[in-house]
Amino acid sequence: MEEGGAEENRITPRPTGKIDAPFTALLLLLLATGLVCLFSASYAVGYHSHDGNSTYFVVRQGIFAAAGLVAMYFASKIDYHKWVIAALPIFLVSVILLASIKIVPSIWVTVNEATRWIGIGDVLTFQPSEIAKFGVILLFSTLATVIGPDRMKKPHIGILPFAALLGLVSLLLAWEPHISATVIIAGIGLVIIYLAGASFGWLAGLGITGVTGLVALIFYKKDYALTRLKVWLDPFSDMQGKGWQGSQAQIAVGSGGFWGLGLGQSRQKHLYLPEPANDFIFAVMCEEFGFLITSMIVIVFALFIWRGYYIASHAGDRFGTLLAAGITTQIAVQVIINLFVVTGLFPITGASLPFFSYGGTSLMMLLGEVGVLLSVSRSMPPAKGE
Amino acid sequence: MDDRRADSRMIKRIKFVAIVLGVVCFAAVIVKLFYMQVINYDFYQSKAENLQTRDITLYPTRGTIYDTNMKPLAISANTEMLILMGNKLESDEQRAMIAAALSEILELEYETVRKKTRDTSSYIVISRGIEKDKADAVREFISKNKLSSCMYMLEDSTRYYPYSNFLAHVLGFVGSDEQGLAGIEYMYDDVLSGTVGRMVTATNVSGDELPFEYETYFEAVDGNSLVLTIDEVLQHYLEKNLEIAYNDNNVQESAIGIVMDVNTGAVLAMATYPDYDPNNAFTIVDTELAHQIDMIEDANEKAAAKSNALYKQWSNQAVSLAYHPGSTFKIITASIALEENVVDLNTTFVCSGSYTVGVERIHCWRSYNPHNTQNLALAIQNSCNPAFIQMGLMIGKETFTKYFEAFGLRSKTGVDLPGETTGLYNLKQEIDLAVYSFGQNFSVSPLQLITAVSAVANGGTLLKPYIVKEILTPDGSVVQSNSRTEVRQVISEETSAIMRELVESVVTVGTGKNAYTAGYRVAGKTGTTEKIAEQLQEGKELRIASFVAFAPADDPEIAVLIILDEPTGDTVTAGITVAPVIRRFMEEAMPYLGVEPQYTEEELENQDITIPDLRGMTLSDANDRLKWLGINGATNGSGEKVVDQLPAPGSVVSNTATVMLYMESSAPQKQITMPDLSGMSLEKARSTLQSIGLYVRVTGAKNGTGNIAVIKQDVPGGETVNYGQVITIELSDLDQRAD
């Protein structure tokens, strides 16, 4: 199916150009900063939980980062169109893996009351939800491209099947439970179908329905919800109890002040902050770097995201666009949820900060996905003047 | 597959998404960061500090209080204190559990500890001055219950008074935070307490200190030490004799004594009996009174009664008592009269048993046997009231008041002790002057009186009394030293010299005879006054008997004032009750002060002898030895060598005794019931003891004239003693009933 107005935009879809230099530079900057921050943030935890080995976390993360960069390099070399074939299998595999929580729960690992990891031996653990995210990106991009923008406008084609798939994944994630992954995957899916041309009105309707459902749920479990709400808005009201994580994070952020305490000088990382190397690494950064440098890091993230969407909008074809936008959205939503949680703009939920939080397999996968995005960037037409 | 590029609609949508997810959300984060890190920084900073740091108060060690010879009388020993971090406790159940456990280990009241555990601040002092065994028990409790994140121990120091009651009223005591609450401890609290330090340390969630430098440290500065003018030896003599006098005379209120260096104003000893233990200052010493207070049902009344009792117990009467000095004040009246030349040594005074001023007729203490005509010396020796009334009237009100002030009796002496009083003085009419002249109707403090009398004795200079000689830094260097401070010249050296002789004659031939100390020249004056207000209230005779003395009379070194507040023995007058106390004190103090004794011939004849060990000697050797000592010997049985002897070797006995030498067998082992000798003459007592095979040693007025009788014996009547034991008896002149 063709559209006349778009004829002159046709170019070769094969990615033969160079990878996008600004995007790569921003990525490497984030990755390097991330490792430095991780070293500082994990110092005390490493010291206490790994027999005084303060470098335990950063060394492992460094190895995975290196492996991830290799994966990224190869992924950037592979023509991204090849992922079309893998879209359905990857999605199905992730669904099967997610479903395995009920079938073979023994391979799952529970940390802090949430079962999110599948362990291969003791060393390598990974989150099936990470694979699910990539699976959704690939499958949605492929389907939306195949369906095409015109048919995407019809809700029963452009929204309903996608919503069903998202519903399936959400249901599986609810077993873990894993709210942040659900939000991220929903975000990715909705952004992809929105970009692919789904009706804004229907999407908005869907959104309103979702919010209404949420409000209904809050009324249904009023006491629980109110407690959560109170603790979110004022974590100090129950500092020793439910507000512990939130208040500790906010104390870290606030006490950093304008100039920060200096690299390595965080006090909150000394066992006050839960997961200082993981979900709350940004709190440690705020405390050590202060407002000035932390804002700069936030801006680097924003530029990185912005550049990701730039690549998406300049990709060689729609599939590339959706793929790049999907991957960028995944990173964006993940970063935003983490920053929102740490700064108290969002209730506490377990979400890591891409390129910063400790987590080897997750970092490796993320870099692999960035490799796919870089492959897309090679399909961009050369900038004017070159 | 569709290989077209993104169309404009798609690009618009990407831009929208990019703006939301790439700009708006990140801007929101930056705004929130600005709000938290810049605008609201202080809020989070204080939260962080409260959470992450441990703010520790470092207590300095309180300075030591030494006597003049550097004997420590109040010291601070190392102990520990327990700090609770109330902000780290999780639940009320946990708080209650901690309170229960700690109150048991530390032996504290549960409710007190429970109240403290309810506090949510980060620094709650549960208890201070915890000694090692209890501290170890607390540590065990902490580690067993994994409470190291919410409580910890710190170094502390606790005040100890190694000699318990010794010098209690002067030293005072400290409260639970080592703050001085009474006496020197209160007066010199700033000097002794030092400066509190502070340490702020970063800690992790377990309360362990963090491995990097984050510390603010202000060192505690230990307190300075004090060297008192108090001489531990003299103080001991004074306290011992006050206690004896208190018991001998059935004293109802207290026995008070001061010893002053007349040439410097330094307080060498100062005591009030009954005393208390500064280690347990809040325990009521009088068990009967404590019991009565316990019986009070109303809580407020009980608390009031308790605090009254405690304040009375702590009161340093030597500076806080306002009393009528009575006849001891005649020293001052006579000094004024001499200094103003209204009398001289030849002036005569007539006593008809009473004296009438206006319409008031004032009796002499010996109105039953009037003194008739006396010169100044006799008037003082007789302590004749009419003579002193005449003297006072000759001086006149204005001059009297002028000298009264000059002797420092209307103002505080300025001694460095708390609680000093000045008494009442309200001289308006002739009759007031008449009564004031013999020390009645106005009041002064014991310290004021002894300071004034010291001025009379030392050549006429009023000195400012002081009790702290030196202030030392913790390393021992002197930061301040106090010495003689002249207030003013009150009387001339000439007047002072005459007064020294006159006052000495009171002891040698006058009403103060019982203070006579063989070998030493003691000058002094008795005083017995009625506690008029209290008598009216209680409807019975209540007296204050006192004696002020200085010695040696020709070149005074010390002045001594002893007061018995409400003696209730057979005789209450000072010549009988207090004068012997002065003598007993002087007998010990004079040799200690290195004053050379000069005995009269009679005194030399009546010396005591320390019996040597004669056992194993031949009879002739033993007799030679006894002859050389000037004591008689007798033998029992026949043999070559002395087998046993009585009195036993080392006994001190009068030289009138006969030493019995047993040549064949040991001395008989017999138990004898001790007779009561009180009131007997020396001869009677001696023969009584001799007849039952006891030896005698005589102290007190053994060379005196008058109604000399036994007033004390070292073994009370009725107790059993060994055959041949030496009994020490004390003699006094029972005629000394002057006021």
Short description:
The complex is a heterodimer of chains A (386) and B (739). Chain A is mainly alpha-helical and 386 residues long. Chain A is built from 13 helices and 3 strands.
Helix-strand layout with pairing:
The complex is a heterodimer of chains A (386) and B (739).
Chain A: H1 21-49, H2 56-77, H3 83-103, E1 108-111, E2 114-120, E3 124-126, H4 128-152, H5 155-158, H6 160-174, H7 179-195, H8 200-220, H9 222-233, H10 244-256, H11 281-313, H12 318-343, H13 360-377
Antiparallel strand pairs in A: 1-2, 2-3
Helix pairs in contact in A: 1-2, 1-11, 2-13, 3-4, 4-6, 4-7, 4-12, 6-7, 7-12, 8-9, 10-11, 11-12, 12-13
Chain B: H1 8-39, H2 41-52, E1 53-58, E2 65-66, E3 72-84, H3 92-105, H4 110-117, E4 124-130, H5 132-144, E5 151-160, H6 168-171, H7 183-187, H8 189-193, E6 197-202, E7 215-218, E8 225-228, H9 232-248, E9 254-261, E10 267-273, H10 287-295, H11 299-314, H12 317-320, H13 330-339, E11 348-351, E12 354-357, E13 360-363, E14 372-375, H14 376-382, H15 385-395, H16 397-406, H17 430-436, H18 446-457, E15 461-463, E16 468-472, E17 478-481, E18 486-489, H19 493-508, E19 523-530, H20 532-538, E20 543-551, E21 558-565, H21 574-577, H22 579-592, H23 601-605, E22 608-610, H24 619-629, E23 632-636, E24 644-646, E25 652-654, E26 658-662, E27 671-673, H25 682-691, E28 695-700, E29 708-713, E30 720-722, E31 726-733
Parallel strand pairs in B: 2-8, 23-26, 28-31
Antiparallel strand pairs in B: 1-6, 2-3, 3-4, 3-5, 6-7, 8-16, 9-10, 9-21, 11-14, 12-13, 15-18, 16-17, 19-20, 20-21, 22-25, 24-26, 27-30, 29-31
Helix pairs in contact in B: 3-4, 9-22, 10-11, 13-15, 13-19, 14-19, 15-17
